[in-house]
Amino acid sequence: MATSLQLNPAVFTPGSTLSTDQRRIFQSFSGITIDSQAVNGHYNSLQAGFEKRMSQGFTILANYTYSKALDDLPFNQSVTGPGPNASGTVYPWYFPKASALDYGRSDFDRGQRIVISYVWQLPTPKGAGKAVGALLGGWQMTGLFQAQTGLPLTITAGQDRSQTGLGVDRAVLVGSPLGPGACTSAPCVNYLNPGAFQLPPTAATASPYILSFGNFGKGAISGPGAMTWDVGMFRSFTYRERLSVQLRGEFFNVTNRANFNNPTASISSGGFGSITGSGDPRIGQVALKILF
């Protein structure tokens, strides 16, 4: 996979008051990045499926995946390419095993996922008269159920504590990461425990210096999972060979479950650890479709 490497990081100099650019290896330049194919990834999974083909007007398809994806791609870089603002690894390139702190769960990794889809052609009630049969017969119900565990979370310092100019230093984990205490005002949902994280020591006070990069691993915890159930009802009325009317109703997230976004993950940001956004609520729509 492609990654971006910063070839001209700043070098911490004890007691120095020089700016980041003045402390770079090649002082005639600011940042120098190079794109490379130096990232390795691994994916392992257990996949199971179940299928009931159409019989008595009903068919269902279910798939379950238990997986883990690992790589050493910096957490803020996309697998499709580093992009113009990619910052590279946490450790400078000249460190031995510079990608060590970037090895962890892939940003897209979801440990478990299940998807169930079905189609049910509802039968006409037995003994129904002609009028009732015309009204209640011919309906078709469809559904799509999806549930999955949360995406990885990487907690950052939000400050250049190592004074390398890379800007991706990690937080220091000192307690249980999940818990209350993040919300200061509504609307808000607690997720991370702010008391469990600290800023790493600055380069000037860290002993040894490597502690200034923090210790939180990439994707070490997960964000909230998600579950949705979408349902559709359809009925077609044919008037002529080339003219029909379809009545349809579609309902998304029919259980109205709150599927929360990931919380703020920089301990230097306001609202760190809190969740202030979520996916769509229940949405329903009814339509009349003319086919000719």
How would you characterize the overall build of this protein?
The longest helix has 7 residues, at 130-136. Strands 3, 4, 5, 6, 7, 13, 14 and 16 form an eight-stranded antiparallel beta sheet that branches. The protein has a two-stranded antiparallel ribbon with strand order 1-2. The protein has one domain (3-291). Helix content is 2%, strand content 36%. With 292 residues, the protein is mainly beta. The chain is built from one helix and 16 strands. Residues 80-86 have low confidence and may be disordered. It is elongated, with a radius of gyration of 27 Å.
Helix/strand/pairing class, anyone? Answer: mainly beta
Number of helices: 1
Number of E-state strands: 16
Shape verdict:
elongated
- What's the rounded overall pLDDT mean? 87
Helix/strand order, N-terminal first:
EEEEEEHEEEEEEEEEE
Provide the helix percentage. Answer: under 10%
Report on the biggest sheet: 8 strands, antiparallel
Radius of gyration: 27 Å
Low-pLDDT stretches: 80-86
Percentage of β-strand residues = 35-45%
Count of domain modules: 1
> What is the rounded distance between the termini?
50 Å
List the SSEs and their pairings.
Layout: E1 3-6, E2 33-36, E3 41-55, E4 58-71, E5 104-105, E6 112-121, H1 130-136, E7 140-148, E8 152-153, E9 172-173, E10 189-190, E11 197-198, E12 221-222, E13 226-240, E14 243-252, E15 274-275, E16 283-291
Antiparallel strand pairs: 1-2, 3-4, 4-5, 4-6, 6-7, 7-13, 8-12, 9-11, 10-15, 13-14, 14-16
